[in-house]
Amino acid sequence: MRLASGLARALTIGVAAAVVVLALDSLVSAVMAQNPFGAPRPSAEPQVGGIVGWLLSKQSEFYREMSSTIRAAKSDGSAVWTLLVISFAYGIFHAAGPGHGKAVISSYLVANQETARRGIVLSFASALMQSLVAVGIVGICALLLNATARTMCGAEKVIEIVSYALIAAFGARLVWTKGGGFIRALQAQQPVPAIVGAAHHHHGHGHDHGHHHDHHAQDHVHDEHCGHSHGPVPSELAGPGGWRRGFGTIFAVGLRPCSGAILVLVFALAQGMFWAGITATLVMGLGTAITVATIAVLAVSAKDLARRLSGASEGGGALIMRGLEFGAAGLVLLFGVGLLFGYIAAERVTCL
Amino acid sequence: MNIAMRRLLGLLLLAGSCALGAGAAQAHPHVWITATSEVIYAPDGSITGVRHAWTFDDMFSTYALQGIETKTKGVYSREELSPLAQTNVESLKEFGFFTFAKADGRKEKFQEPVDYFLEYKDAALTLHFTLPLTAPVKPKQLALEVFDPSYFIDFQLDDKNPIKLVGAPAACQLKIQRPNDGSANAQKLSEQNFMSGDNSNYGAMFANKITVDCP
């Protein structure tokens, strides 16, 4: 009986999610059709349909305008404003296309019971870090060392691999932690007294906390140093001490700079307009952050909705929520591994 | 219980593959190349290779020239650019030189590039290089595609005479299909394809297709 109602609830949640996605899709396309940046909507893009195609063509357009605008800014100060507007728009559009950064952040937020507020802060912090890494690479390699593009691109590749490895490691840790909660929720479903807390053998430390109460499982979080911290209840999550935990996400995601930003910075440097390049990069990051934060908040709200829908009964609801968190944790791991081993080949730095 | 679990896991897997597929679609070009190419024929009418001249966009040209020392500022001689040309062709190898040839439907392979050099003119770099086929072919139809499957690079054939047949038999007919002229509709990729992750060859819809028919 309970199974049937649980299934029905899961279906309801699925349908609700699908409706939200579809509504959002049509809303976005309707809004975008209104020319937010005064540029005409491109008429001939027959190959790629819908929002995705439009986003792709838009960001290409903005990106291509950057080089001429930077050139213009050398003699005409007002072109700097144009540059900032273009960069901002590019940032927004760039992040709106499917990409790993916001997917990792959103999955992390869902897996880890985070609040929307923290989602916004994480998005902005990782975008800022991404911008600073780009400025750092070009500042050190090109400006100070006068290294070649080949060296710089090599550095980019190394950083990229480290970033992907960190995402994978981070995902693995989330899966480990969330797997425990999920298994306990499963066991709570079956009246079998099973090996509770087995999933807690963490890095061979052999701590066995033996949490029998499945409502605690969601709060069990490990901090950066593999120590065990007993997480706060959801209402305390936004407290000052909790920020530290999001640092891993910021670092893993923000470490990888955008190739576009590097190109713009080097180009600006060659024009003697490095400061304009830096400003453009930071504004680009701001645009990216706004989009990522929006998606992150949507993800958190969707989870809250799921919680409310499934919250009626203790057993099945908890199982669905733990399953959702476990799945989101798995996604982070999947992203990390996929990026690391090149299954997501498009997100690889191409050095020529 | 088990059914519910399996459905849940199935849903999660589906969501995961969607997200991964969507990840692959993120690419938008960062480098623009305007290409002209020559198909080279031997006296007996067989095809021996392809010669490319690829002009990079303003931004990438500047980026590529970063850190290259020259005698005169802003002037780059072929010799001064030769290490960069070397780097370019070496790097291009990893991507199969973005050149995909089929002779009567059979995939052909290229040898290491020869006669490669860079030229700097009007604030743009042009990479010249020749790709010899591993063995000359004499097909009824040669199909040549130039594109980046990951669409990091956007290839555009030059407006005027982008493709030349050098020493081809008189009866050979050249056909060019650009990605943006609407004739590439067979490659049409809908948003559904994107979401289902079926975009492993995403850049293919931006491919420049060249066919040479020799009866």
User: What's the average pLDDT of chain A?
Assistant: 71
Would you tell me the overall average pLDDT of chain B? 80
In DSSP terms (H or I, runs of 4 or more residues), the helix count of chain B works out at 4
Q: What distance separates the N and C termini of chain A? A: 61 Å
What sequence of helices (H) and strands (E) makes up the elements of chain B?
Answer: HEEHHEEEEEEEEHE
The number of distinct β-strands of chain A equals 2
Walkthrough of the structure:
The complex is a heterodimer of chains A (352) and B (215). Chain A is mainly alpha-helical and 352 residues long. Chain A contains eleven helices and two strands. In chain A, strands 1-2 form a two-stranded antiparallel ribbon. The radius of gyration of chain A is 23 Å and the shape is elongated. Chain B contains four helices and eleven strands. In chain B, strand 5 and strand 6 form a beta hairpin. Chains A and B meet through helix 1, helix 2, helix 4, helix 6 and helix 9 of A and helix 1, helix 2 and helix 3 of B.
